[in-house]
Automatic annotation (TrEMBL), chains A, B:
InterPro entries: Homeodomain-like_sf (IPR009057), HTH-type_TetR-like_transc_reg (IPR050109), HTH_TetR (IPR001647), MftR_C (IPR041347), Tet_transcr_reg_TetR-rel_C_sf (IPR036271). PROSITE patterns: HTH_TETR_2. Transmembrane segments: none annotated. Residues 38-57 bind DNA. Residues 15-75 form the HTH tetR-type domain. It holds the Pfam family TetR_N. The keyword Thylakoid does not apply. This is TetR family transcriptional regulator. Keywords: DNA-binding, Transcription, Transcription regulation.
DNA sequence: GCCTTCGCTGACACAGCGTGTCAACACTGC
DNA sequence: GCAGTGTTGACACGCTGTGTCAGCGAAGGC
């Protein structure tokens, strides 16, 4: 059973609508603010009813957040793909680098900065963002533990991943606060330099 | 201008109602689950209208979460109160210990465990919990930076606090998952042992 | 004593979110 | 052409959180 390369025209169409809907939503939310924008407004701007909006995104938060869910998976994939001989510090640094790149090295950096600022500046979205990160943490911990051949209840992999994510948060916040003027990769290196002594190489 | 030791009968009364309301709410939420319990139910159980409930707590989440907001302040106070000669690792360990003690060393540990499990097991509450922690992180970072005489934009205090909170989360999760059978203070020591090399003493 | 004032309360009404349901429509493959 | 599948809008519903208003009781001034 091979998954078709072209995932059935219907699904492509759905993806297309889904993407454009998010585009419109993000633009509107960034302009008016999260709380000042209703789902009805977004739906109307996209030329559809509120009910249809919810067929693409379960909630207003999801339009913004789901973007980052994909990144979480990419980070986990990257960590799993790093050479197994690589020390955890380096592997984690690279994995976090993927997330940082997604934010700052985006094809439209200005828009991405706006989205990040929207998330960090909106309590509801910030909370969801952290929650998503907690999920990612669980997955990453499993991957790292497997890499190191440690039992899944060992404290080290969990703490190592939590430290790496702490670095990510610190970097993201400072990058957003500087309006993108600070170099995210340099910030990440600096943060990991602090963590290095505890990450064992 | 001295703040009265007895904060005006009206305020005491308000505090009393507030406490009992939370008691009833927590009991109901823990029994039925967060999503299966409406604010109307809680209010009815406390013998008041939904409108009055919201005069004491801004939202259903707040009944549960506000409890922890106070703990956040206590942790910050503890960190500020630690002798300034104390190395950051020890000061942070003690500060986090206050939060751990509040959860596990509570007068009614069974109830507290139920609340913690409720929070960690309910996505909405977990998200709010993390959000609250992010606020606390900002405050703690300021205190630690001041302690160390470092500029407020130095990376070290921020990362140190984030690491300490990462330890707190890891401990809390494992303690809750073990149904309180694991010793929280030992867990905390173990987590801080991992962090120690990066916390500079 | 009465009366004013303040805080608390319940009873509405309202906007917003998210969901279930149903009929209408389009587009696929037989 | 026709049945089957998927998408859409319309409507109704329950739940949350807030504004508003009138009623009620306790505290304090005259």
């Amino acid at each position: 059973m091979v998954v078709p390369v072209v995932p059935s025209l219907a699904q492509r169409k759905r993806q297309l609508v889904s993407d454009e809907l998010r585009e419109i939503a993000l633009q509107l939310l960034a302009r008016q603010g999260y709380d000042n924008t209703t789902v009805d407004e977004i739906a109307a701007a996209a030329g559809m009813s509120r009910r249809t909006f919810h067929r693409y995104y379960a909630s207003k938060e999801d339009v913004v957040i789901q973007l980052l869910a994909d990144v979480g998976d990419q980070v986990q994939t990257e960590l799993a793909a790093r050479p197994s001989a690589e020390p955890p510090a380096e592997a984690l640094r690279r994995a976090v680098g993927v997330a940082i790149d997604f934010c700052s090295g985006h094809h439209d950096p200005v828009k991405m900065l706006a989205v990040v600022r929207l998330i960090l500046g909106t309590p509801t979205l910030h909370a969801r963002f952290l929650s998503l990160q907690a999920e990612a943490q669980a997955g990453l911990t499993g991957v790292l533990a497997a890499r190191l051949g440690l039992p899944p209840d060992d404290l080290y992999p969990e703490m190592a991943v939590r430290m790496a994510l702490a670095a990510f948060d610190a970097v993201l916040e400072r990058w957003a606060a500087s309006s993108g003027s600070l170099d995210p990769q340099e910030l990440t290196d600096a943060a990991f330099a602090v963590l290095a002594p505890a990450l064992r190489g």
